[in-house]
Amino acid sequence: MSALVRFSPLLLAVALAGCSQGPDFQRPASQAPQQWAPVQGEAAASQPLAEPLQVRWWESFHDARLSALIQRVAANNLDLQIASARLLQSRALRSTIAADETPSLGLDAGYSRARNSAEGLNDPSGNAGKSAYNLWQGDLVAGWELDLWGRVRRQVEAADASVAVAEEDRRGVLLALLAETAGDYIQLRAVQQTLEVTENNLKVARHSLQLSRDRQAEGVATRLDVAQASAQVASIEARLPTLQARRDDLINALSLLAAEPPRSLQAELLAPGELPVPQQRFAVGLPSELAERRPDIRQAEARLHAATASIGVAKADFYPRIRLSGNVGMQALQLADFGGWDSRRFAFGPQLSLPIFEGGRLKGTLQLREAQQQEAALNYRKVVLGAWHEIDDVLRLYNASQLRRDHLAEAVRENRIALDTAQQQYVEGAVDFLNVLTVQAALLASEEQWIDSSAAVSQAMVGLYKALGGGWQAFAEAPPKA
């Protein structure tokens, strides 16, 4: 019975150590729909499939230059490295907090030369403060807080959740960079195609100008025809500098994403390339998988977890803290005596701290943590709802962009036929030159719109994969570069 009595305080401490204050985190229930919303109205040819999401979605464009550029951005981008540095900071902070779960052990050693007052309590030298003395001492110091109410465990739980927040922040940065890189590359190819179309139309306009001059020389055309043709040439030429500047801006934007100096990518990107075109069918996964992929949803969940754990920390502060501490060491006035049996000393015992009156500080802190948890819960719902709206908007945009592109393609075909017909009729004298200029302007406008609409389809595809949270899984989380 005496042994049971002797060990009962220890058994009680162990039992209490399993207690944790505050609510346990419960992952929010998913309210995902069973299937993606069907397209209303006319459906385009390319539609999403509820199949496993393609992680490396940029490879579906079958553009080696784009794939290589994305790899370079993921490896070198400075924003991503900054996010990685923040992740390392959060992990280091978690390590410092988790250290409170284990006992601390330290060694103190020192030497001092001192002289006490003759009027003081005592004088180790024995000379009533009339002479100085040496003091040699060394101690092995240990301490450990008994986490009876789970305060430290909740702190570590909150720190783990904060690490998850930083991880999802990095993934979100990476996801945005993938979409931005693909988007800028698509715009670059669209601008280059627009440049090519404009230059081709410029050749046609110059041919028309020469034709009008020849007809004027023959007395068939008037000076008005020549002036109108010259104005058409100048108008088209005026488009080129803006397009060239836009092309160079996009190359520089891609250089910045890849952490390269300005114009460093011109040698490999200046040559025109094909506009990346999405596949006819593409997999978008299941709606229930969205919360597992999107970094912003995962981050909002981690913030809610951290806020929930912080309530437990605040509640545990209402209870007493017990810390076991002790030291074993040596102390001597003479170095020759230091280390001897008679120089030994030790001290062991618990330390208890109990909040009695805090002026409402603890209660206010608890109320703050509970309000922060409510805010985090509402923010989680907002992020999830915003994700579904974003996906629905992008799906409709993708469908509408395809329909617009297909209609504009038909307009381009008809305008080319119209221009050939107008030029032939002008040569035959059936129409005046104004008809030729009108049809050529319409062709140039429709061709530019068709290129823009084709780029918009690819851009919508990129936006859809970003909204679905795909792409960051293809890259390992690496520490930031020095």
UniProtKB/TrEMBL annotation:
Keywords: Cell outer membrane, Lipoprotein, Membrane, Palmitate, Signal, Transmembrane, Transmembrane beta strand. It holds the Pfam family OEP. GO terms for molecular function: efflux transmembrane transporter activity. The keyword Lipoprotein applies. It is a lipid-anchor. Residues 24-43 are annotated as: Disordered. Its main location: membrane. Residues 1-17 form the signal peptide. GO terms for cellular component: cell outer membrane. PROSITE patterns: PROKAR_LIPOPROTEIN. It is found in: Cell outer membrane. It comes from the Bacteria. Belongs to the outer membrane factor (OMF) (TC 1.B.17) family. This is RND transporter. It comes from Pseudomonas putida (Arthrobacter siderocapsulatus).
